[in-house]
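User: Is it possible to get a 3D structure for a protein together with its bound compound? The compound here is iron/sulfur cluster. I've pasted both below.
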Amino acid sequence: MKRVIVIGGGPAGMQAAVALKAAGLEPVIVERSDALGGKLRDWHNLFPSATPAREVLDGLRKAVEMARVEVLLHTEVEGLTPDGSKPSVEVALAGGHAVQLSGGRKLEAAAVVVASGFDVFDASLKEEYGYRIYDNVFTTVDVERMLNEGGVALADGSAPRRVAFVHCVGSRDEKVNQKHCSKVCCVTAVKQAMEMRALFPEADIYNFYMDIRMFGPGYEELYQRAQQESRVNFIRGRVSEASPTIDGRIQIKAEDTLVGRPMKMSVDMLVLAVGMKAGSSCEKFARTADAALSPNGFLAPADLFSGCVASGVPGVFYAGAATAPKTIGESLAEGSMAACWVVEYLDTLAK
Ligand SMILES: Cc1cc2nc3c(=O)[nH]c(=O)nc-3n(C[C@H](O)[C@H](O)[C@H](O)COP(=O)(O)OP(=O)(O)OC[C@H]3O[C@@H](n4cnc5c(N)ncnc54)[C@H](O)[C@@H]3O)c2cc1C
Ligand code: SF4
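Assistant: Yes, that's possible. Here is the predicted structure of the complex:
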């Protein structure tokens, strides 16, 4: 059998499917939502280059279409085995693998690439920041949506005069059981602060951070430009609380940890830089395939170095943010890499 099931039609899954097809296999993308694209569908201009997300999305969708990859939309993979039995080398050698789809259906294949991505942290779990309680508290995801819809504004339609970003919302936080650093939220908040400056030239813009983690190519330069050209104020300190003021603004309490002083500030708009948490599918996939989860709930690769797309389960491979917070470039690279591993695995089985 040449069929390979790719679970998830985000950047990692689309890239894996195109590479599998180029290698002569028959990938089937199984996507639970109504379209291909994953989170890329929700973003506006991408860090670090400000490339429109639409451009990257259209390129990937076109590649899937040109390669004539089969796509099943509105279809959720419920488990990595149809009946809860564990995939074994014997089953793989006998020619197959099968996954459980929504509606009780079963789909058979020679191998599976899990590219089911991540979930965005639900900011309302951090009640102290008032998300979904106060009108002008938003998340970085909301800001991407507003930018895509043509503009950022306060709930009454007016322009903010002071905007504050809070980093690490739902990351590096034991209280919400998310101890890991989500990696992309620092650079996203810096990028959005610069976008706010372009939209509101006269506004005061503040970013409250614990550490600034600018790990990627061009990120540190972006951070420098945010300070020097976009006049964004970076304050090292954790915001402890947001509350409404009588004039309809939001008061935030924080401690400036560089000078060791508590501070209060009123802002018009508060933006919470939400983290990446383990996707809702990880737990059920791990359970049904007897695969390992990392302590933060993401799927654990068999090896963090040479085997980062290997699951340790015969015939099952990983790509993208299903295993940890990743950028789009990293997710695409893992999509290609997972396809190579599938080809090598099937070649070995055929020998
Ligand atoms: C606010 C924010 C802004 C970001 N901006 C950028 C940026 O500018 N540049 C950048 O490089 N990165 C950015 N990222 C990171 C980027 O979103 C990820 O790198 C990327 O989405 C990971 O791709 P993926 O394919 O692994 O997962 P996803 O994009 O999460 O796609 C996974 C797909 O799998 C599907 N799926 C899940 N479970 C199942 C199942 N059981 N059955 C069927 N389908 C399933 C989902 O519906 C989804 O379509 C940002 C992240 C955040 C939170
Ligand atoms: S990338 Fe930055 S904002 Fe995101 S969790 Fe890590 S330190 Fe916090």
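The mean pLDDT is 94. The helical segments are 11-22, 53-66, 89-93, 140-148, 185-199, 219-228, 281-289, 328-350.
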